Each structure stands twice: as structure tokens, then as C-alpha cells.
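Hi Q.,

Before the meeting this afternoon, I wanted you to have the calcium ion prediction in hand. No need to reply - just skim if you have a minute. The sequence and ligand are here:
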Amino acid sequence: LAAAQAPQDLAGLRVVVSAGGTREPLDPVRWIGNRSTGRQGVALAQAARARGAHVTLVAANLEASVEGCADQVVPVESTAELRQAVRAAATDADVVVMAAAVADFRPAAPTGAKIKKVAGQGPAPIELVENPDILAELVRERLRPGQTVVGFAAETGDATGSVLDHGRAKAVRKGADLLAVNAVGAGRGFGTPDNEVWVLDAIGDQVAHVSGTKRQVADVLWDAVLKTRG
Ligand code: CTP
Ligand code: CA
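Predicted structure with the ligand bound:
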């Protein structure tokens, strides 16, 4: 649907969407990052805006264009910056969607000067420390009363369980109102146009399943958000 034709069923809602992937500096010219392009987050912002929401997009190193997809775009690079921007916007938001791929760990001591290789010496090990879990904080603190908090999880199946098994366990562990579980790997997920997503509630029950474009996934997720909010 074109923006003008979309139902205005999110009108009056203020939503925050984080998108992209955080980069954790090692030195002024290097970082540790991930493959997230931000396209799913941008699609979520676009869909919400088309349906009448006021949208703040916290944009971490996006490859996708953000042209016209939000009322406000806040560019960030690191997890610390993303956390600060999301929390600031969340204080008056009805819905926060953490679609960004947040680095779990960051270099313990990024250097102010470029790291040099020294002849005859091998590489120095990189010490990492854990980042705060922004989603867990949002769930715990509910920065605005009645706020709906939504997480994303990119999962692959492995010997210990399927994509959905891992998703259910994570939904329960995270306690977000909704967790969108995205199947990745083998040509799916990162950087591809089509997604398969299960939407789970806080106790891991499936509330929606969708296979389609990131825009279709986004619309199904917003439908689930509306249902959750009653
Ligand atoms: N997330 C977050 N802060 C972090 C890590 C993750 O807010 N430090 C959010 C992501 O934006 C996403 C959700 O938590 O919405 C799930 O991220 P994921 O990486 O799947 O969960 P983890 O608990 O980090 O588990 P895993 O060990 O599988 O990486
Ligand atoms: Ca993680």
C-alpha cells in the first residue's frame, strides 16, 4: 500500500525503532561490528509512519536509505551511543522496537591513537567486556508507563534446537512483550529481501508467523503490537 492508502491505525502512537548494527571502536580507524544492514528496521519505521505513527529511528551505521522513513533520525555508531539515544527517545514513546543488532561485547580499552604493528611481535590479544543489554533494561524499567517493548532475535538452528526452540527460550528469558524471531543463515536474513519471522509473546507463545518482504514482516509486527496493546 502507498502511504496515502495505508490504514491510519497507528495514528497517535509515538514509536522508536532502533536499526542497523553497532560498531565498537578498537582505535580511531577500526571497529568490531556485524553484518546487519538495517533494512528490517527501516522497513519497520516506514510501515509505522505510513500507518500514522510518529516515528523516531535510531540509526546505527545503516546501509539502507532512511529518506522519508521517520519523523526523526538519530544517527549512532557504538552501543553506548545507541543506548543513550534509544533511552532518550523512549521516555515519551508508546512502543520501542529494538531491531538493531547490538554488539554483545566491546573492546575493553579502545586506544586514542592507531594501533601499530611492531616488527617481530605478533598481534596483541583484544580484551572484550560485555555491553549492557538495552532491551532487558527497557523491559525492566518501562521508561514510560504502559510502553510496549519489542525485541528481535536472529537465530539459526543447531544441534541443541531449531530456530523456533531458540526463539522461545529467548522470548521467555528477555520478557519483552513481543519477540520477532528471524531465521538467518543459508541465504536468509542478513542482506536478503525475504524473511521468515515468528512473533512470540513474553511467555514464548506464537502470535504470528510471516514469510515475505521486510515490509510485509513489518506490517505483521505492527498488527501484533496493536493486538498486544488491546
Ligand atoms: N539487545 C540489546 N542489547 C544488547 C544485546 C541485544 O538491546 N546488548 C537486543 C537486540 O536489539 C534484540 C534482542 O536484544 O532486540 C535480542 O538480541 P540477541 O543478540 O538475539 O540476544 P542475546 O541476548 O544477545 O543473545 P545471543 O547470545 O543469542 O546473542
Ligand atoms: Ca547478542
